[in-house]
Every structure is written in structure tokens, then in C-alpha cells.
Amino acid sequence: MAAIFVNLLFFAWISRVSFRHFNPDGRSLGNTFIRVCSLAAVVVMIFVFSQNFLLPVQLQVAAIGILCLAAVIFFASVRETRSRNLDVAFTGSSPSELVMTGIYANIRNPMYLSYLLYWLSWVFITQFSAASLLFLAGFLVCYLYAAVHEERVLKGKFGSTYVEYFARTGRFLPKVV
User: For a Cys staple, 63 with which of 105, 121, 123, 140, CB 3.0–4.6 Å?
Assistant: First the structure.
């Protein structure tokens, strides 16, 4: 039960911070789709969890550990981009500067990584239910699509600077040399 409580607290925190952090004019159909799907997924995950309250301690510990990692990555991302005027995903706009410091020195899309870790925690909370695996796969496709689109935009805007950055960083995980 602790894992679901921590998970819902994280969802509320990440939603609040995301709304306040990004450019409020940066709403888009794709972003609205992600928000609606996220809310629907949480409702479905709570329903799936309610069908079997007996979550083994090992799965609770794993889920909370994954959530803690997601929170650290999300916080580091927000801290590094706080003073920059970034838009949310799927808006088609590009930032005025390239963020290559802090966590972004190793990972190009740490916020997407934190969101994927959040959905991975639901896989453990729901004991590897088909619904949680489908939502994780669906969100992976959405964030991968957004990341690839953003990479094209940033390459066009920042040219060789972005190409060099792209070569030394990983999309969702640090590159191992």
C-alpha cells in the first residue's frame, strides 16, 4: 500500500511542477493527449491494483526505489532548466538555447526518462499486469516520438553544436564509453 501512496504523491508533484515549469502558452494537442492518457492510465492502474491489495514487500520496495530514482532525475531536470523558457513536448517550438549542463550533460531527455520510470513503477505495483505493460509501452512510443522530433528541430536550429552534443549523450540513458 505504501508504494501506491508514494506513486500517487509523485504523480501529483510531477503534474504540478510540470504545469508551473513550462511555458503556459506551450499547450498542444499532443501534450493534451499525453495528459489525458496519463490520468486515464493512473485510474486504470488504481483499478488493477484494487483487484489485488496483497503486494509483496519486494515489489513495493522495487516500485518505491524506481520512484525515488524518477524523482531525483525529474528534480535535476527541473533545476537545470528552471530559468529557461522551455515549452512542453509536441508544441513544435524550440528553445532559445541548448541545455547541456547538469543532468543534460549525459542525457538529452531526462524528463522523459523520469516519466518512463514512473510508468515502470506501476508495472511493479500492479504485479506486471498486462495493462501496466501496455501503458508503459505506449508511453515509451510517445516519448520516443517526441524525442526524435525534438532532435530534428534542435539539429536544424543549433547545427554542429547539437550534432556534437548528440554524439556524446544518450537519448534516455547515459552513453557508456
Answer: 121
